[in-house]
Amino acid sequence: MGDTTDSSPLDAALTAGIEGDVGALARAIGVQGGHLAWLIGAGASAMSGIPTAGQLIVRFKHQLYCDAHGLDVQDIDPRDRRTRGLIEQYFDGANGLPDRGDTDEYAVSFGRVYPSADVRADLIAELCRGTAPNYGHYVLAALMATNRLSVVFTTNFDDLIETAALSVFDGMTPRPSAVVADLGDPSKAVRAFQKNSWPLVAKIHGDFRSDRLKNTTEELRTQDDEMRQVLQTACGQYGLVVVGYSGRDDSVMTVLREALAQPASFPSGIFWCYRPTDPPAPAVVSFLRDAQDAGRTVAAGAVDNFVELAGAIER
Length: 315
Known about the structure:
The protein is α/β, with parallel strands linked by helices. It contains 13 helices and 7 strands. The protein has helices spanning 22-32, 53-69, 81-91, 105-113, 117-128, 135-145, 160-169, 187-195, 217-220, 225-237, 250-260, 282-293, 306-314; strands at residues 36-40, 151-154, 179-181, 200-203, 239-243, 270-274, 298-302. A 7-stranded parallel β-sheet has the order 3-4-2-1-5-6-7, sandwiched between helices.
């Protein structure tokens, strides 16, 4: 993972030494844990059975393709390579969807398949129903319980982080309690920072039980003002570990860039994890390069999954 040759999954423009490995990241967290906030994306919940944005895009395109051609969805298998290619070709910057890999691809396709916000919320609730935290969530909870983690931001709608925390905290005396803030009451996150009420789990795209979810292009265009301020505040006080988040979301990346413009932001560095088969989006590569140029400690490492990272941290 430290290879910086042309075969590296990171953009070749990244300067030598920016790539790290999972072991080095785990050791850094062991030393700096209390000085690092976390940003958790959908990839962290994939091993709990919740589909990622990429998987949902395939599902949405499949449904739209069948609608457009008058086909029954059960008769068309998007797992078939040829069929998948036909669907991708049909929607690649055409027929109402942006180019493949565009930052708006998920949001636009979600809004096309389910125009109603209520229906989108019900689908998210269905996807989250019956799921359980994975090992990675429990390691996060253990870091919280031992004061090695104060703040977690997540773009996910599920409740797996707080469920794991409740399970771990139940066996402790005195029993800690996590502050959970979503778009229904972002002021809870503001008060947590004002009163140093840790740990905090801030759900920047909402919660499946909330009336305020963000999943269409217009909804994702800007963050709630209070939640945006909390994220910027955290970036000014902590370093940042990013796991399971693709960076294909302008609303969050804009906040991170605005934070980077502050002279003392990310004081304990930025550690960005990505899947070996899914290299960082151009917006992420650009952000990391700019952070390094601005004198921040930066590392980007390939991690197969959230559980691999959690295992390295636990060891």
